[in-house]
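Q: Structure for this?
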Amino acid sequence: MTLLGFSRLRFRTKINLGIASIVLCIALPLAVAVSRMAADALIDESKKRGSVLVQNLAVRVEDPMLAMDLLRLKNMVDELAAVEDIEYAFVLDAADNVLVHSFPSAYFPVELKTVNRVADEVPLGIELLRTEDERLIYDFAAPVMISRTRFGTVRMGLSRSQTQAVVNRLVLVIFGLSGVALVSGFVFSTVFARRVTRRLNILREHAEEMVKGNLDLQTGPSLTRNCWEMLDCRLTNCPAFGDSRRRCWYLAGTMCPECDNSSPRGKLESCKNCLVYQMNKGDEIQDLAETFDVMALALKAHIGELKQAERNLTRQQSLMRTILEVTPDMVGLLDTNLKYLAANKALAAFFGRDVAEVVGSQDTALYPPAEAERAAAEHRENEEVLASGPAVSKETEWRRGERRHFFHVVKLPARDRDGHIMGLLFTARDIGEVKKYQEQLIQSQKMESVGKLAGGVAHEINTPLGVILGYAQLLQEDVPADSQILSDLKTIEKQAKVCRKIVADLLKFSRQSESEKREMCFNNSLMEAVSLVKHTFSLDKIEIKTEMDDRMPIIFGDPDKLKQVWLNLLNNARDAMDGGGAILVRTRLDSPAKKVTAWVADTGPGIDAEHLGHIFEPFFSTKPVGKGTGLGLSVSFGIIQDHKGSIRVQSPVPAGFMAAPRREGAAPGPGALFIVDLPLDHEVDVDAAAD
Amino acid sequence: MRRPGPVRFWAALFAGLVLALALDACSRDEPVTYVDLSKREEIVIQAPAKALTYAYLPQYSHTVSYERHKLLVEYLQQATGMPIRQIFPGTFEEHVQMVERGEIDISFSNPFVYVRLAGNGSRAFARIIEPSGKPDFYSQIICRKDNKALKTLEDCRGKRWIAVDPVSAGGYLFALGLFYDHGIRKEDFAEVAFAPGPGGAQEKVVLAVYAGVYDLGSVRDGTLAILKNRIDLDQIRILAESRHYPGWVYSARRGLDAAIVERLAKAMFALDMKRPEDAAILAPAGMRGIIPADDAMYDPVRQLAGKLSIDLDQGAGN
């Protein structure tokens, strides 16, 4: 049997072979040795027996020899020779003459007299004889000594062949028993091996199942005596309580007072003295199976935890990916070679590529050729961040075609656990909207500054202007009615009044004039202004259409100043429409937002986009010189601001806003739409008011 | 350590088995002598040489008888220059008959046997001095030392008695005479038994009492001393002793040449215990010397026989 062949044998077969070999190794030499010893002992015993018999005969023949009682002597040798394995017996006298013998006929084998002679002083002589028919005979000779006088010799022949036959039978029995022991050993080893390998096979099958992922197997036997029942334990929060599958001595944190939970080894040692351990403890294979079960359960628990952790990780990855994909900010991570390790969709879209294309590429390869210079600059900056470590936070502007983009760019070195720079994090946020709001804020601050300046100037000018106007009027009384001086004075008076009007408007714009606010009807305020100009406008072929909110919203405001606002807006619309047109005035109450809104739209030529941000500025006007002071809309802005409201403009008018009011034949323009929001300062049940 | 491979294992196993079988093959080598049992011849018993026959009444086994008288017989041969052969009759009766048939020339017998032999013509010519130093002997009645029931002769009524032989003088008849004188008859005993088998009768009686088979026994004096190395004599108690009678006697058969008797007697009388070489001859024979005797000395024995109504023809022994 080759080594490979033996190693491939089944474990059960190996055990069988091993035990059979052991039995063979023990039984065979033992049988040989025992046979040898038994044979020797039998032969020795046979010789001792022969010795005793012949010496006994030597004593017994003394009396008959003295009496020369041949009959008794003959009886004695015949009795002895009648024993199965005694071949012959005879008695010689002192002169070696045969007195009696046990041979059937009167004739005596003469050669027997010449062998196995014994001297007087030798108590016994034994000689092995081989006869002519190959029989082996132990010849025993004992001298008959009476009172130290040799009277003769007794001889006896004991069959060695018969003894040998007994020995052979004995050897046969011993070898037979050895054979039975061998067979029994084989049978028992088969049973034993089957019993052992059955459990080992269960272990192996369960191990295979574990490899396949099935961890719900029980290899060890179920407990029939549970620890909490044996110890009458009521510690229900003990990990062993109610767990009939695992052995309590394998569980950490058990709450028995005797348990040493300081270490697994200490616990096992302390458990060895416990009744539960002593009653439920099995052999090594059971220990292995139970440990296997504990391992399977622990593995299952760990796998469960791992799966849960994996799920959490996947979810977090998904969330992070979603965040990165959804965020409009551009995010990318570059390695130390300034190649992108990761990039989000926004960044890829900025480069006009897929994410997969961005990853692994450098900036210089991603920017379009027209921006190669910029790409090189970014690359250098990235290298500086990687080399020296300080973060970069900057605002930058890209121009791509006609569009301008403003970004807030942050570049941070990414460090590993040891603090070494392992990459660079790049983020860029589009701050176009922020920029727009910044500009609006600047505009507001500018308006406020201008207002304050204008108010201050107006206030300072108002007094000397009154003096000029007063003196001009006074001087008119002192000059002739038709004189040139009077005419000049009137011109001074007229222009002074123009100045005073300008000053008054400036003061209104800067809210430095007093206002008298009260509760008022918003619709009425508007309708008063509309009715005031409606006729005049109609002469200019301008139609005014109103869509008032029938809930009649009430606001807290200054009716005169608000009327001025409405008149300014209406006049502004008329001035824009030289060839006639239409004006739509609409109001709407927005109760949830607590505001009321008025829209004033026209069909005029509209306002250029570049003018939209400036039309509320004082003295800004697109009208020809002398046609307006440029203060109308700025004054309106100031009044609405004073009412905590807001005014803004859109041009062109959104499509569909005022399709209905347009008159036929009029040349329609993009138009402009002014929107005025005013707060409902007081808690007024506008619905009730509307009723 | 390298694990022995299966090949090595099987090799070791095979070697072990071979060794075991080889050991078995080394059987005993004994020298054998060849004999041809088919060569045979007829057996012829040689007749003994002519000699004076000397017999000791079979009081003991033949071997004991031989051992006791071996040196004496050798001495007599040497002293007389005559061939003398000791022969061994099996029983008292055979002894008497052999004397009567002339097969025993010199008989050494007890007084009763002698009285009987004298009736057939034998004549006493010598008698021995007993080991006690006296030329007479007596019977001892013995029992076990721990037998509390036997304290006096009277206690022997109803008990079991073993004696040597119905014709034994010291072993039965002297004791019977003692009981007779005390008014105890043979019938008064629960049982009177005699030692079985040939030879050694005196010892058998002692052994039977020693073993507790019988309550009391009767032996001649000197018997206990013979057994001192074979049994614990402390366990034996001597209950009573008979009167002394003349001891063992040498007698010549009827018709034996008187000269021969004279030569023998002379040689016997010449033995002296004081001489060590003679003592070495006398002591084993249980005698301290041999002195002359005549038939008249045995009349008391004849009287005892009459008292006990013993038919001397039936014989009586020691």
